[in-house]
Amino acid sequence: MWLLLLVPALLAAVLSCLRLVRAAATADLLTGSARSHPVDPVGVGLYETAYLAGGPVRVVELALVLMTGRGRLHLAHTGWTSVVDPHGRSRLERALIAAIGPEGQCRTGELRDRLATHPIVLEIGGRLVQAGLATPPLVREHTALAVRQVRQALLLSAALLAAALAVAAPGTGDAGSAVAWFSLPIILTSGTLLMARVDVHPYTHWATPAGQDLLKAARLPHQAGPSEPSPGLPDAAERELLTAVAVVGPAALPDARLRAALRN
């Protein structure tokens, strides 16, 4: 009886591990191709740092915090964003104001999702991908999905082993045989996950290993400002706050009401 439970466990383990190996090989190929075609050096400023740390959504959150701090937007803790100054100082700010709409007010969550797919935001990621600093989005998504599937196969094998032990006839040795056979998919998936921590895990981040090194140095005071023109560089206190938001996210904000506004 327990043999019927072993078949899906073995199939799930083998297929998920093969899928992860293929995803890792594709990631190596694509990221290696990006590094072999260098483009002009990319200036890594606050927006680029935000992309490497949290992707397009983090870039939008940084822009919202920057514009709110400079009095151009009002973020309400009720989940609404209102335009205070309709004149954007950069392409990203102008795109954000345009995304809010002619009424000058919209839901913050909808604005964040809408602007995260805007060409100006995706252009930041594209430059970083070409420079070998950011993982291509499709590579990151496929690799993360493959890792999740292997993890699910491991949990499935453990659950089916428990079911097999429950139905095994006592005193017949079936329990020992079930444990021995089910150890195969369990060892296969757990071993694959351990190897993935070294070989595959970097591809599940927005930043490549080279980009991760840049993130570690993101708090250096001589780091360049945003890549888009801005009316004057921020002072030291503002730059420290914006850098923390870029690297950590809204959780770095000391203002609880502003954190709540971005969560909404």
UniProtKB/TrEMBL annotation:
Keywords: Membrane, Transmembrane, Transmembrane helix. The chain crosses the membrane at residues 153-172, 178-196. InterPro entries: Ser/Gly_Cys_C_dom. It comes from the Bacteria. The keyword Transmembrane helix applies. This is TIGR04222 domain-containing membrane protein.
